[in-house]
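User: I'm preparing a small set of examples for a lab meeting where we compare how different chains pack in three dimensions. I only have the primary sequence for this one, and I'd like the structure in token form so I can line it up with the others. Please keep the answer compact; I'll paste it straight into my notes.
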Amino acid sequence: MAHKRGKRWVATGYDRALKRKIQLGTFDGKREAVQVEADWKLRTRPTGRETCDQFAERWVRDYPRPRASTTRTHQERTRRFAKDFKGVKLTVVDRPTARAWALKHPSDAPAVRAMFGDALRDGLVEINPFSQLRLPTSRGRKDIVALTEAELTALADLALDPRMELEDFGCEYRCMILWAGYVGTRPGETFALRRDDISGDHVTIARSYSSHSRETTAPKNGRERVVTIPPAVTAALADVPHHPSGLIFQTPAGKQWTAAAHHHYWRSLRLLANRPGFDFYELRHACATMLLERGATPWDVAVQLGHTDGGKLVMNTYGHPSEAGARSRLLALWNDEVKPLRAVSGAVRAQES
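Assistant: Understood. Below is the structure token output for the 353-residue chain.
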């Protein structure tokens, strides 16, 4: 509401995007300030005309994300919502309705929440009904029990099992599993690896292959990184033939790996291992955990995995070191061969000086 400050009148308005009042200007008279506030309310008031399906159709076009693959994913994730709410105005969708729909379609809800977020910032709705719904969720990857080195090797060795029917391709698939578990690259990065990316015991991660868009792009955070190749992987690479395509790994048919093609073989292997729900991405967690167990710092692991947060995500999500391992290392610190870094206390040093 317009109010007087000194000899002038101040006009204010509510900014829905910032979720707070903002100052619209100062004026000589009250009438001017009131008129500016009225114009602001009229300009920012939701029109109430656009329907959910209409906005969903143009959202991916008018609000594209930096990565084309993300935009395509949003288009897929909002398709069901557009169908279920065809002809329903955006302003009619309330929180109870949003929550009921999100509980039925939890995988689509984040994209719809982002869509309503853009609608809110543009003043098309007064609230984002999909925001802060407090939906029941699992701990997801935080509850993963990471493979040990012995379990990783045993899993990879199953690629050589005759029941996999991989024949000459078994050695290559075994190496691919060891690579994912020891080097820790993302699946798309693994699919895009080339022989000339390797230099000794280091490899440059310069690209990622998107199975969804069938495009080769930069890694997830847009930055190249150089990571290490453990000896177990180097030994396994010796059994992988050099392909004319230059790729390190390719399908038995000599084509670029895709998520769908890889899942065909991965599903058979994890069933053979009696791990029916084991996701290939969990090998990345095994890499992080093994490095932590061997004494690497979270920062070291972040460098290997391609994180730019200094190790925070490694500690919160990717690292799953065992308590038993931690106790063993703590006891080992009291070994007679381990000497304290400080031989005398600070008080004694102060007296000596």
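A couple of notes for your slides: The beta strands are 3-5, 8-15, 20-27, 198-199, 202-205, 208-210, 215-217, 225-228. The chain has three domains: 3-44, 52-121, 149-324.

User: Perfect, thanks.
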